């Protein structure tokens, strides 16, 4: 491709779209196709830009994402969907390149489903352990996840940033109480599990950051903390996920530790029978926009971390 790749962000006014635009606007190796504010919801205007683009990011609600995907007339147009709509759909590749064999699938795909934020942390922790046989596929797992409020969209952000903040918003809040959270199907399918975990997401009064926690027992896995750590250390050698032996700050691990970054760190804590596997990342970074740009970079044959913010702990 002699010209710069043309990129269109459908839904550029949302939190994920804004973060993608912020990262990409600093680059001179791509061309962003804009759309006037008045035409953001005009199907004809969006269709025109989708079909001008080489890569399209869908940063939309599920139904709108499905409609936009159908607007792409050119089969060579790469669609990267950040919604839930296609994460378990046939014909779509799951956009988590650090999983074995997934990077190659992403590189040759025209339809890529970006992982969900909570789900990405769970997948990073559990998929390798299922693949090596430490966690049997029939296991009954639990997952706790702490997230910043930016993942809830504009209405939730406005509520938390209102100067007259309600008392209930000042403390962490458990949600997904019905155990029908939209991330559960991908958590089960991508990890190769027979059962969805008991999932307890918690939103806290901080803008961004995420801490996904999966309790494990040696009697369940047959593996020690050192053995689980070795699996992670060997598994994550490329990409934007890495294993770190120690990430705590004096016995505490903050869910904000990776805020503002586009990579992910995982670790295992505990000894003997009980342990916790932990994934730390930014819900808008590796949990959304960072992962989407990483997938775009792979498709375009560029370094995966180009234009992204990564750091060592």
Q: Which structural class fits the helix and strand makeup? A: alpha/beta
Strand content: 15-25%
- Share of residues in helices: 25-40%
Strand order of the largest sheet: 8-9-7-10-13-12-11
What would the CATH topology of the largest domain be? Dihydrodipicolinate Reductase, domain 2
Assigned CATH class of the largest domain: Alpha Beta
The radius of gyration is: 19 Å
Quaternary organisation:
single chain
Instruction: Describe the global form.
Output: globular
Would you count the extended β strands for me? 13
**Largest sheet descriptor:** 7 strands, mixed
Task: Walk me through what this model shows.
There is one protein chain. By secondary structure, the protein is α/β, with parallel strands linked by helices. It has two domains: 6-115 and 288-299, NAD(P)-binding Rossmann-like Domain (Rossmann fold), CATH 3.40.50; 117-283, 2-Layer Sandwich (Dihydrodipicolinate Reductase, domain 2), CATH 3.30.360.10. It is built from ten helices and 13 strands. The strands form two sheets. Strands 8-9-7-10-13-12-11 form a seven-stranded mixed sheet. Helix 1 packs across helix 10 and helix 5 packs parallel to helix 7. The two termini are 37 Å apart. 43% of the residues are buried.
């Amino acid at each position: 491709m002699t010209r710069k790749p043309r990129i269109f962000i459908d839904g550029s006014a949302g939190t994920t779209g804004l973060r993608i635009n912020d990262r990409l606007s600093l680059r001179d190796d791509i061309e962003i196709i804009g759309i006037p504010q008045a035409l953001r919801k005009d199907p004809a205007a969006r269709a025109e830009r989708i079909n001008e683009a080489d890569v399209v990011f869908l940063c939309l609600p599920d139904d709108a994402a499905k409609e936009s995907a159908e607007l792409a007339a050119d089969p060579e147009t790469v669609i990267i969907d950040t919604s839930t709509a296609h994460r378990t759909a046939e014909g779509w590749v799951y956009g988590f390149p650090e999983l074995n064999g997934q990077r190659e699938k992403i590189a040759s795909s025209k339809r890529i489903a970006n992982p969900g934020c909570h789900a990405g942390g769970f997948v990073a922790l559990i998929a390798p352990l299922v693949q090596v046989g430490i966690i049997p596929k029939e296991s009954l797992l639990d997952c706790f996840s702490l997230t910043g409020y930016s993942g809830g969209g504009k209405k939730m952000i406005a509520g938390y940033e209102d100067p007259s903040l309600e008392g209930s918003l000042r403390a962490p809040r458990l949600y997904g109480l019905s155990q029908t959270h939209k991330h559960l199907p991908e958590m089960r399918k991508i990890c190769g599990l027979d059962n969805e975990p008991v999932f307890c997401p918690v939103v806290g009064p901080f803008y961004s950051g995420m801490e996904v926690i999966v309790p494990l027992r040696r009697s369940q896995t047959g593996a020690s903390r050192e053995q689980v750590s070795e699996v992670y250390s060997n598994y994550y050698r490329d990409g934007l996920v890495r294993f770190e032996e120690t990430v705590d700050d004096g016995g505490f691990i903050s869910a904000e530790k990776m805020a503002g970054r586009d990579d992910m760190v995982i670790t295992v804590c505990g000894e003997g029978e009980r342990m916790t596997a932990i994934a730390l990342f930014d819900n808008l970074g590796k949990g959304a926009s960072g992962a989407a740009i990483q997938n775009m970079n792979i498709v375009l044959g560029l370094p995966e971390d180009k234009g992204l913010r990564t750091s060592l702990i």
